[in-house]
UniProtKB/TrEMBL annotation:
Family: Belongs to the aspartokinase family.
Pathway participation: Amino-acid biosynthesis; L-threonine biosynthesis; L-threonine from L-aspartate: step 1/5; Amino-acid biosynthesis; L-methionine biosynthesis via de novo pathway; L-homoserine from L-aspartate: step 1/3; Amino-acid biosynthesis; L-lysine biosynthesis via DAP pathway; (S)-tetrahydrodipicolinate from L-aspartate: step 1/4
Domain of life: Bacteria
Organism: Thalassobacterium maritimum
InterPro entries xrefs: AceGlu_kinase-like_sf, ACT-like_dom_sf, ACT_Aspartokinase, ACT_dom, AKii-LysC-BS, Asp/Glu/Uridylate_kinase, Asp_kin_monofn, Asp_kinase
Gene3D superfamilies for the chain: Acetylglutamate kinase-like (3.40.1160.10), VC0802-like (3.30.2130.10)
Enzymatic class: transferase
GO MF annotations in UniProt: aspartate kinase activity
Record EC number: 2.7.2.4
Any Pfam family the entry gives: AA_kinase
Protein name, as recorded: Aspartokinase
Reactions accelerated catalytically: L-aspartate + ATP = 4-phospho-L-aspartate + ADP
Keywords noted in UniProt: Amino-acid biosynthesis, ATP-binding, Kinase, Lysine biosynthesis, Nucleotide-binding, Transferase
Length: 404
């Protein structure tokens, strides 16, 4: 008997028929003699709809109340999924994140898991029940309900799989696995049979929303091997695991697009030790994650700092910078504009040269201007005009021969 964690995302539980489909699949896994924990998301669109309603009432809703609101989405799905299983004659019981003892820090809307007791999940499984767990939620030591960041049901699934020492963790979604690029954007993208944690993490952090990046980070830390696969067929998916030597033969594994970035230029800063430290320290303290940093010194001897942030953080970033550099605030300190980020990722980059040249050449031939460049050991990213984003993704995908 194996213990299997299956996570079903928003589209997979999007309506009554889809919930019936999930129940049928869970029934098959259970009937094969396995213990099953099912982690579900809110129906697709529900979380966004709730956010929309909150913002219609208050543009900056209180984060505790936001968590109170958003956790409703998953709570609907756990109850409906349990009922669908009951209708198929399968004993099933739903549990919220707090009931499963998913303890987090108190940072509402982006809480980090601190420990997982599992509540009575083991007992329920041993009593022959399927346990349906609400994804995306936990509770703080103060007893408040918290959420784990957008896409956080992936993290709930990986974390409960680690805590229960599950034999198998399947992330069931609306595509057949992890592809060389978003298959909705690049029609000839290929499904990968396997990918390393590191590459998956870079893709997820660079905009491939097939997995939440924090979920991948958690899986890597606790060595949870997992499979991304379809909720709608039985095709083998993509195994995400520790790197093996043969993975390095592939130079580039995938291309990611993030259309939700902003480029910020903070100009006229003093060129002296401590300027960058102060700027990024205050942004970090405001919870703003910064990427792609470039510093240059103007002819006037002033430092200009260019960097990217998620688009929703522009106003918070501006407020933080203006408040932290009051002496410079009178000048043209802060400029922001929308940007898209295209990234190529592959562990093979460590040992193969020429990746940057191929990337830049593909963009040049397509007439795409590069505004910013950043590199890591296994990733190269470029910041470009959002208008060029989709064309650039397809050009780069083709240039690395990733298509079918
Ligand atoms: P779920 O609701 O199941 O969590 P998501 O919508 O969060 O599903 O993630 C699945 C989506 O991720 C796919 O529909 C696909 O459009 C998108 N996606 C982006 N990049 C990739 C990629 N490299 N491989 C597969 N899917 C990708
Ligand atoms: N419902 C949450 C969201 O939309 C969590 C998830 O789907 O994973 O972000
Ligand atoms: Mg998701």
């Amino acid at each position: 008997m194996a213990l299997i964690v299956q996570k079903y995302g928003g589209t997979s539980v999007g309506d009554v028929d889809r919930i019936k489909n999930v129940a049928q699949r869970v029934k098959e896994t259970y009937a094969a003699g396995n213990q099953v924990v099912v982690v579900v998301s809110a129906r697709s669109g529900v979380t966004n709809e709730l956010i929309g309603r909150a913002k219609a009432l208050n543009p900056q809703p209180d984060e505790r109340e936001m968590d109170m609101l958003l956790t409703v989405g998953e709570q609907e799905t756990i109850a409906l999924t349990a009922m669908a299983l009951h209708a198929l004659g399968i004993p099933a019981v739903s549990r919220t994140g707090p009931q499963a003892g998913i303890l987090t820090d108190p940072s509402h809307t982006r809480a980090r898991i601190t420990s997982i007791s599992g509540g009575d999940i083991k007992e329920q499984l041993d009593a022959g029940k399927v346990v349906i767990l609400a994804g995306f939620q936990g509770h703080s030591a103060e007893g408040q309900i918290t959420t784990l960041g957008r896409g956080g049901s992936d993290l709930s699934a990986i974390a409960i799989a680690a805590a229960l020492k599950a034999d198998l963790c399947q992330i069931c979604t609306d595509v057949d696995g992890v592809y060389t690029a978003d298959p909705r954007l690049v029609p000839d993208a290929k499904k990968l049979d396997e990918i390393s944690y590191e590459e998956m993490l870079e893709l997820a952090s660079s905009g491939s929303k097939v997995m939440q990046n924090r979920a991948v980070e958690f899986a890597q830390k606790f060595n949870v091997v997992f499979e991304v696969r379809s909720s709608f067929n039985n095709n083998p998916g993509t195994i995400v695991k520790e790197e093996v030597a043969s993975m390095e033969d592939v130079v580039v594994s995938g291309v990611a697009l993030d259309k939700n970035q902003a480029k910020i230029v903070v100009s006229d800063l003093p060129d002296r030790p401590g300027t960058a430290a102060k700027l990024f320290q205050v942004l970090g303290a405001a919870g703003i994650s910064v990427d792609m940093i470039v510093q240059n010194i103007g002819r006037d001897g002033k430092a200009n700092m260019t960097f990217t942030v998620p688009r929703e953080d522009i106003y918070r970033a501006e407020k933080t910078v203006v408040e932290s550099f009051p002496d410079e605030a009178a000048g043209k300190l802060f400029e922001a504009n929308d940007i898209a980020k295209v990234s190529v990722v592959g562990v093979g980059m460590r040992s193969h040269s020429g990746v940057a040249a191929t990337l830049f050449d593909a963009l040049a031939k397509g007439g795409v201007n590069i505004q910013l460049i950043s590199t890591s050991e296994i990733k190269i990213s470029v910041g470009i005009d959002p208008e060029d984003a989709e064309k650039a993704t397809r050009l780069v995908h083709a240039a690395f021969g990733l298509g079918q």
